[in-house]
Amino acid sequence: MSAALEQTAGTAEAELTDGFHLVIDALKLNGVKTIYNVPGIPITDLGRLAQAEGMRVISFRHEQNAGNAAAIAGYLTKSPGICLTVSAPGFLNGLVALANATTNCFPMILISGSSEREIVDLQQGDYEEMDQLAIAKPLCKAAFRVLHATDIGIGVARAIRAAVSGRPGGVYLDLPGKLFGQVMEAEAGRRSLVKVIDPAPAQIPAPTAVERALDVLRGALRPLIILGKGAAYAQADDDIRALVEKSGIPFIPMSMAKGLLPDTHPQSAAAARSTVLLESDVVMMIGARLNWLLSHGKGRQWGPPGSKKFIQIDIEPREMDSNVEIAAPLVGDIGSCVAALLRGMGDDWKQPPSEWTESIRAKKDSNIARMAARLGKNSMPMDYHSALRVLRDVIKERPDAILVNEGANTLDQARGVIDMYQPRKRLDVGTWGVMGIGMGFAIAAAVETGKPVLAIEGDSAFGFSGMEVETICRYNLPVCVVVFNNDGIYRGDGVNLGGGTDPATTAFVRGARYDKMIEGFGGVGVNVTTPDELKQAVDAAMESGKPTLINAVIDPAAGSESGNIGNLNPKSALSKKGAA
Ligand SMILES: Cc1ncc(C[n+]2csc(CCOP(=O)(O)OP(=O)(O)O)c2C)c(N)n1
Ligand SMILES: [Mg+2]
After folding, report:
1. Pocket test for ligand 1, best of 404, 417, 435 (most atoms within 8 A of CB)
2. Which residue minimizes the CA distance to atom 8 of ligand 1?
3. Which atom of ligand 1 is nearest to the CA of 407?
4. Omega before 381 within 30 of 0, i.e. cis
5. Is 484 a pocket residue for ligand 1 (Cβ < 6 Å)?
6. Would the CB of 563 count as within 6 Å of ligand 1?
7. Whose CA is nearest to atom 25 of ligand 1?
8. Residue-wise pLDDT tens for the chain (580 aa)?
9. What angle do CA 255, 261, 264 make, to 5 degrees?
């Protein structure tokens, strides 16, 4: 080829773009820097090209973990996390994370490649054939499909807006394989892209609703504030703290709201939770929902019906009255609602009666003393408390580290023992109590924040995403995983009720060595049996930032069935009678 011809060919090519590049350009234009990915037909090249174009592409071993990573990236950053998967099975693997993100109000976009529309719709048996859009729809906030390269810009814009505006959630974006190869003029392509302006617009509460809420609050004798993860998501940290402190009202944080105000704050009533739920007369919920985690706002925990008034701050109007009457609904984004309340409170806000705050303090002190006694014990083998005592100290010494936590006893005990000091540092199983978020959350937390991550995992919980320790090693992420190894689910000492040689349904291999797994990938593995060994190993990991997995041997008899929620297990009337 002559030099002139070569140049013409080069120019012609430079003036064209294709579906691959338009997707990447649309994401980049909207500030997306990272894709959580599992490669394969038809999206392998999309991942490669995204990396070539300067995006960070983190490739996982299973789409559910990539999806969980995208979801928590969305929670941490308030911009949608992106998960990229192949068609049918890869898409389905990502769906659990998409549904979980929607339930938890985390903004994420699951982008899946899909097969030939013409063949899929006639059900003629294409490679990985599946009508993915139809399947995704009921499991997410919104679902879109793009058929033409000219619509990629609009498709990506719609997905971003749907994910982060109003109540955030999961969005599905279906990209058929054929789309990526479609070519169009580069300039027209550039013009077809959409930069989403103000993707999550402020939603200002009505002044009358603000006044109503303040009136209810003024009339309270025993007020309580409940902070939910919506409040943590809002990143209105200073105003929320100012509201709580100006009001003088005791607060309890839901699990992922821990640290929004430090757990050691004098107004924290977490150590007197059952007392304040029962005895309060006005409860203001900020980004918390009255779902099962709060016993639906009624029943024994809450006292007689009608004994309380609820004020609820939420961006979703339909959340109001979902379980009980809300006396003062305050609908808007949390930042705007809290700012409006602060303004309306003025400078002479009356503090709650001291009988109320003093009675909480007394209850708190006695509960904390009781807990201190349990934490002080050095049992051998370790029980949950002796192991958690040292992990509590680790977080106290490194309050900017991110804590990931899943399991049953491992979750419930860690939540109670480990104080958090900063917002959005505790990431856990959320609304569903789902197992399997561990490594996905840990990886995204490290990638998005650059902070050290401590993942405290039940041995069962860890198994759901454990293969991603290879991913942690491959990207050399500062993640320290501590597996609470009690040989099983809830306990390791279950027996086979049939008397055969199979182990109990809840038991795992006795004395398993999870630390060996990470060594196979070049990470640091440590087996520990005492609190001192555990502290040393975690300190070394947090100090070095090296991928580390610590197998912490826990007494197989230390846990209880389902941790703190054993009461949710169905009981047969028959077995209650002692099965005669
Ligand atoms: C996806 C999913 N599958 C199953 C469960 C049921 N489940 C709840 S906790 C748990 C594991 C508890 O065992 P472990 O993680 O070892 O914690 P431990 O109580 O032993 O400390 C399981 C399987 C769930 N919550 N989510
Ligand atoms: Mg276990």
Report:
1. 435
2. 408
3. 15
4. yes
5. yes
6. yes
7. 434
8. 444 455 545 555 569 999 999 999 999 999 999 999 999 999 999 999 999 999 999 999 999 999 999 999 999 999 999 999 999 999 999 999 999 999 999 999 999 999 999 999 999 999 999 999 999 999 999 999 999 999 999 999 999 999 999 999 999 999 999 999 999 999 999 999 999 999 999 999 999 999 999 999 999 999 999 999 999 999 999 999 999 999 999 999 999 999 999 999 999 999 999 999 999 999 999 999 999 999 999 999 999 999 999 999 999 999 999 999 999 999 999 999 999 999 999 999 999 999 999 999 999 999 999 999 889 888 899 999 999 999 999 999 999 999 999 999 999 999 999 999 999 999 999 999 999 999 999 999 999 999 999 999 999 999 999 999 999 999 999 999 999 999 999 999 999 999 999 999 999 999 999 999 999 999 999 999 999 999 999 999 999 999 999 999 999 999 999 999 999 999 998 875 444 3
9. 90
**Which is the closest atom of ligand 1 to the Cα of 554?**
21
Q: DSSP state, 129?
A: -
Terminal alpha carbon distance of the chain: 93
Question: Is the pTM here over 0.90, yes or no?
Answer: yes
Using the atom order of ligand 1, give the atom closest to the CA of residue 464. Answer: 1
Which of 431, 481, 490 is the pocket-test mutation for ligand 1 (most atoms within 8 Å of CB)? Answer: 490
Q: How far apart are CA 389 and CA 398, in angstroms?
A: 14
- Dist. CA 82–CA 171, nearest whole Å: 10
Alpha carbon distance 509, 513 (integer Å)? 9
Q: Which of 245, 227, 241 is nearest to 314 (CA)?
A: 227
For atom 2 of ligand 1, which residue has the closest CA?
A: 435
